[in-house]
Amino acid sequence: MIRVIHCSKYQTSVSTSNGKIETGHERVNGAYGRRVEDMDEWWPVPDVLAHLAGRWRVERGVRDLASGDEGRFEGTTVFSPLPEGGLLHQESGTFTWRGVARPAERTLRFLPGSSPGTADVRFADGGPFHDLDLTTGHHVADHPCAADLYRGEFTVRDADHWRTVWRVGGPAKDLVLTTDYVRED
Q: What is the CATH number of the domain that holds 54?
């Protein structure tokens, strides 16, 4: 069980299933890329849907903290307009896990959020995933999934670079997924 005790831009404390307290983004985000502190400043986004529209190059590191296994996804994400408003997020590429590369894809729906400039992120089937408010350039969202908790941290670096870090904890999961997006168009 993962419990985030405290989270800020510079420090995070996490209680793990073995009772050990780990602090700092270095350990929580560590080998998966730059620390949040190294991203200088957040870049405010007044309208998340307008900002995300287009094609992005995607690189995702996946680390199983329990086993030490690491994987990687490389591909593209296209955010295209939905007829009813919002954006269709279509991600495709190659996921390599334990040395085996496989095609991978996912689809999400980014709908207009409850306040201006925000989004309500949904799975392809319409089920709720999380909210997204990047008006400050930074957002943290939770998604409970059965016995697991997905905690996502979204950070915008500039007009063409943003990152998500998902920390997944539960009885059978202890993962960190760090995704870097770079605008292609």
A: 2.40.128.20
